[in-house]
UniProtKB/TrEMBL annotation:
Gene3D superfamilies: 3.40.50.2300, lambda repressor-like DNA-binding domains
Residues annotated as domain HTH lacI-type: 6-60
One Pfam family in the UniProt entry: Peripla_BP_1
Organismal lineage: Bacteria, Pseudomonadati, Pseudomonadota, Gammaproteobacteria, Enterobacterales
GO MF: DNA-binding transcription factor activity; transcription cis-regulatory region binding
Protein name (Swiss-Prot/TrEMBL): Substrate-binding domain-containing protein
Listed InterPro entries: HTH_LacI, Lambda_DNA-bd_dom_sf, Peripla_BP/Lac1_sug-bd_dom, Peripla_BP_I
Keywords linked to the UniProt accession: DNA-binding, Transcription, Transcription regulation
Top-level lineage group: Bacteria
Keyword hit for Nucleotidyltransferase: no
Amino acid sequence: MSVKRITSIDVARYAGVSPSAVSRTYTAQHKVSAATRQKVLAAADALGYHPNALARALVNSGRQGSGTVAVVMSEFDNPFQPYLFSLLTQALQQAGYIPMLINVTADCDIHTSLLQAQAWQVEAAIISAGSLSQAATERCLELQLPMVLMGREDRQKKVTAVLSDNRYAGRLAADYLADAGLTRLAFISGRQDGQASQERQQGFCARLQERALPAPLVILNQDYAYQSGYRAMQRIIRHAPHAEGVFCACDALAFGALDAQRLEDHRRRPVIGCDDTPMANWQGYRLTTVRQPVEQLVKQVLINLKQVLSGCAGAAATVRIQPELVVR
């Protein structure tokens, strides 16, 4: 049995007022008399009417568009992505936007997904490109849609991007391990086409070279997954047991590396992560890590989003925000 949706016209008829009077009752900048307002609210309560909150919010905000912003993201099995998504969507909602998730999977046609989103009157997109392949990011950039990148730069320098200073993150990890007197080190990488992983490795290696220490052993991976970190540590245990400390391109890799070391080796090498996800502070890990300034990153993304939507963005730029080491 279908249930009839109550509309403002039904409320107007029940209250004996015009449809425009109902609309004005629920629109902040318009006024109706107290008597009319009381009639409308009483009718709405009797009929179980709920006004269109989206439409009302858009009228009140003065925006002409839908207020919907697509958040394009992948790798939700990596604890950093849900953490970032939570903070980002909270910030969007507080700013009066409506976030729409586009979860990119390996077999997903991202171009088609974004076209479908545009059919729902999406105004702009925030591309969490650090969780996407370079190819998927390029597909996003093909669309004529206002957007901001996170975690990866636009090679064509047409879209503003917001990133952590990843090379500095690598330098922080190198200094921490070197200051502890460790010289034989290893780096566990993330996605091979991941800008963050590449830059963290570059910063790590450059700082060790500056300190006249040997180049680290580099274990390459195709992703940022826990299992990849676990397997990488297994390789270190079996083929490079002399390694004294390990820097991982992200926390998820570090969690896998720590568990592999705990279960398969008697040694307890320092393992450093990069992200500072909430899980890093769990008692079972207490991971020393380089904290990404997620709150600042999100704040900067919102600034850039408002600029591109207003047409005042100017030339595309890359904004880098400095991370910090968290020792546990």
